[in-house]
Specification:
The chain has 286 residues and is α/β, with parallel strands linked by helices. Helices cover 44% and strands 15% of the residues. Strands 1-11-8-7-5-6 form a six-stranded parallel beta sheet, with helices on both faces. Strand 9 and strand 10 form a beta hairpin. Bound molecules: NADP nicotinamide-adenine-dinucleotide phosphate.
Length: 286
């Protein structure tokens, strides 16, 4: 079996086109563009690249994409003051604080300062609570993008065994609840899981969100499994690779996301979609 690649770039392009139409309709109706504000603290090279992509994608889709770049030595109070200002600003619909923050900053306090209705990363306790309750709310972009990919290939989750490897709030835990909502039987694996190979071998769907190149061996997969590789790892030669041994997995899986060009582009597309959702909900509540 040779797996079909799920083309995240092409799907993301379609999602961005949908967002652009909605952003235009929003502007016609409310006389302003949806506003997405991204806060970047410090000079982490990967974060700088991600933030530039978000800024560009926002303006191309007809949103106002503002980036607030703060020096690495920014204090908790300074960062909180900025987030509180954005929280009050009526032209700002979405606030995203790029993670990870420099070590001296208190991530929890900063996330808690984002009002749930502007939390386009879906990381505030309120939005995580709505997710676990199966209620509508702003949801994390990478898991939402992964779910959209599963929908695109027509993968029926009901009753299937889904293995999520990695339990971060941003990815692993959030997608586990989304899969559960679709009636999959979900297993959440992590660094203390015994027999990861055995868990992988039983799964109809494997979502890998760890950050270790080639952790999931192709030969572990159940033949015909669907593989969503969220991992982004930079190799010594500068190239990017996922958490799944792609060459091996292609031989056994039915569908697989490549890295790069898989989940990554979907994350940004879903962020824009969340920003328009936030803007619409904010206007509806005015
Ligand atoms: P994270 O917060 O570092 O979480 C990593 C998870 O992997 C943890 O739950 C950890 O378990 C688990 N883990 C570590 N070693 C393991 C092992 N040997 N076997 C099984 N599980 C293991 O990372 P994250 O933020 O979720 O990101 C995960 C990956 O996705 C990274 O490569 C990141 O760059 C990528 N990512 C991509 C996108 C995108 O847009 N495509 C977005 C976000 C993240 P413990 O909890 O036990 O420590």
């Amino acid at each position: 079996m040779t797996a079909q690649r799920i083309d995240g770039k092409a799907l993301a392009k379609r999602v961005r086109a949908e967002v652009a139409e909605r952003a235009q309709a929003f502007e016609q109706r409310f006389g302003r563009k949806p506003g997405l504000d991204v806060v970047l603290v410090g000079e982490d090279p990967a974060s700088q690249v991600y933030v530039r992509s978000k800024e560009r994608a926002a303006s191309r889709a007809g949103l106002i994409g503002n980036v607030h770049r703060l020096p690495a030595e920014t204090t908790n109070e300074q960062l909180l003051a900025l987030v509180r200002t954005l929280a009050q600003d009526a032209s700002v619909d979405g606030i995203l604080v790029q993670l990870p923050l420099p070590k001296h900053l208190d991530e929890t306090r900063v996330l808690d300062a984002i009002p749930p209705e502007k939390d386009v990363d879906g990381l505030t306790p309120h939005n995580l609570g709505l997710l676990t309750a199966g209620r509508k709310g702003l949801r994390a972009c990478t898991p939402s993008g992964s779910m959209r990919m599963l929908k695109e290939i027509g993968f029926e989750l009901e009753g299937k065994r889904a293995l999520v490897i990695g339990r971060s709030l941003l990815v692993g835990k959030s997608i586990a609840f989304m899969l559960l909502e679709k009636n999959a039987t979900v297993t959440l694996a992590h660094s203390r899981t015994q027999d990861l190979a055995g868990e992988v071998g039983r799964a109809d769907l494997v979502v890998a969100a760890v950050g270790r190149p080639g952790l999931v061996r192709g030969e572990w997969l159940k033949p015909g499994a669907v593989v969503i590789d969220v991992g982004i790892n930079r190799l010594e030669d500068g190239s990017l690779t996922g958490d799944v041994d792609f060459e091996g997995a292609v031989e056994r899986a039915s569908f697989i996301t490549p890295v790069p060009g898989g989940v990554g582009p979907m994350t940004i597309a879903m962020l824009l979609s969340n920003a328009v959702d936030a803007a619409e909900a904010i206007e509806a509540a005015r």
